[in-house]
Design goal:
26% helix; 16% strand; four-stranded antiparallel sheet; alpha+beta; four-stranded mixed sheet; single chain
Length: 450
């Protein structure tokens, strides 16, 4: 449901919003981030060679590039760069990187942004998630400051999509700490995008300000003038309490908030204020588990498979997201993201496959057989588990639902440790162990509870 706002003749102002943009990031480096709310900041601060003007339709248009690439053959992409592109020139940028602030972005920035992700000798080599895709590149040549030539090892149909994809950002070559090859602090958020990062206070607020020198400011400018039309965004970290958020919104302490609580949403919807717009939007989320596979019980693949089969994901989603307006407020997309649905087999056919079947009775029977085979004459010990989530309200219902499902199906007793902060407890453990986990070695300590 949407209540349209009346047109506004003037531009500008700071949008104050409750979001998760200031959530503690695993890294500020856009080439090493695995995702999360920091992506909102990255997309505002950095630019790519190409971008999607319509994600669902798959429409790709130039961003840093002046035009679509010239392709003299199926392996070569000649990309002309725009004139007038410069890195952010702000007091913070000048203090952190005096040689970068205001410097023109050139072809060497593009080349090094690609090649750093292919450097197997980098101390952060395991963190460059796009290295597999980029390994299809044979070489990157910069014949001049305004031209990038990319030569592939073999033809790659979606190569333009790779240049427009998330994390395909071009960074200033000086901003990555050479000793560790990482952009580890908020001061490295110096890009060429439509907004500058004025400040980033972890767990408090991310402040973005209009980049008046943005190279694409006049692309498609309308009556409201050059883009971006806002003077800035103060993205306050969501308190994750709908009653508090509603009260703050009604007192005009913020201009935008999300309300996950149906009761609080109904109170706002009942308002007669003409300048309040309410929209129901879809939001993608991930319900994931991480298991310590170097020790019992999850060292045994049969136990892991049993847990997979025992979990009723539809019931779990219903427990976490209660009905709204007499209908489900959550929809499971399954293993195929909506944007890829036109290339996927139909949902009816998908659920006939062994991995996604809907026959719960058969799945539970198989799960019990696997657990019996894994345990033999023994019994499974209590399994401590950290439950965390953003928003933090999902951890409690998730714990209760999973405890009930696993106890009733395979006799596994989960001892829940609920992260009251939403992410700090589990996030800290993950950050300390991610490198070791990638190599198959896990430290003892807090992460043992996960």
């Amino acid at each position: 449901e949407s209540t349209p706002l009346s047109s506004v003749a003037r531009r500008g102002g700071i949008l104050r919003a409750y979001t998760f943009a200031a959530l503690t990031p695993e890294t500020f480096d856009p080439h090493q981030s695995r995702g999360g709310p920091i992506a909102d900041v990255h997309s505002a601060v950095f630019s790519r060679l190409y971008r999607y003007s319509d994600d669902v339709a798959g429409t790709i248009v130039p961003d840093l590039a002046k035009a679509m690439p010239e392709q003299p053959d199926e392996l070569t992409y000649i990309i002309p760069l725009r004139e007038g592109v410069a890195f952010h020139d702000t007091p913070a940028a000048r203090a952190a990187f005096p040689t970068v602030a205001g410097r023109p972005l050139d072809s060497e920035d593009v080349r090094q942004s690609i090649e750093r992700q292919l450097n197997l000798n980098s101390p952060r080599a395991s963190r460059f998630l796009r290295a597999g895709q980029l390994s299809l590149i044979e070489r990157v040549v910069t014949p001049n400051r305004r031209t990038v030539t990319i030569r592939l090892k073999r033809p790659v149909a979606p190569f333009l999509a790779m240049l427009a994809a998330p994390q395909a950002y071009v960074i200033a070559r000086e901003t990555a700490d050479a000793s560790v090859d990482e952009m580890a602090t908020a001061s490295t958020l110096v890009g060429s995008g439509p907004f500058t990062a004025e400040s980033f206070e972890t767990g408090v607020v991310a402040r973005l300000r209009r980049n008046a020198a943005w190279f694409a400011a006049n692309d498609g400018a309308g009556a409201s003038g050059p883009q971006p039309w806002l003077d800035g965004v103060d993205a306050y970290f969501s308190p994750q309490e709908s009653a508090f958020q509603r009260a703050a919104f009604e007192r005009q302490a913020v201009d935008l908030t999300e309300l996950g609580d149906v009761e609080q949403l109904e109170r706002v919807r009942a308002t007669t204020l003409a300048d309040v717009s309410i929209d129901e939007v879809e939001s993608g989320c991930v319900l994931a588990s991480r298991l310590l596979v170097d020790r019992a019980p999850f060292k045994d693949d049969r136990v892991r498979r049993a847990v997979h089969l025992a979990i009723d994901r539809r019931a779990l989603a219903a427990a976490l997201y209660p009905p709204f307006d007499g209908r489900d407020s959550a929809r499971l997309s399954g293993p195929i993201p909506p944007a890829l649905s036109r290339w996927a087999i139909s949902g009816d056919d998908l659920v006939k496959t062994a991995a996604y079947r809907e026959d719960r009775a058969a799945a539970i029977a198989e799960a019990k057989q696997l657990m019996a085979a894994a345990l033999g004459d023994g019994a499974i010990a209590d399994v401590p588990a950290i439950f965390a989530g953003v928003p933090k309200a999902i951890a409690g219902p998730a714990a209760a639902a999973l405890q009930r499902q696993l106890a009733e199906t395979i006799g596994m007793r989960l001892v829940a440790v609920i992260d009251p902060t939403g992410d700090v407890l589990l996030g800290g453990a993950l950050r300390r162990n991610v490198e070791e986990a990638a190599e198959g070695v896990l430290k003892s300590g807090l992460f043992d509870q996960a």
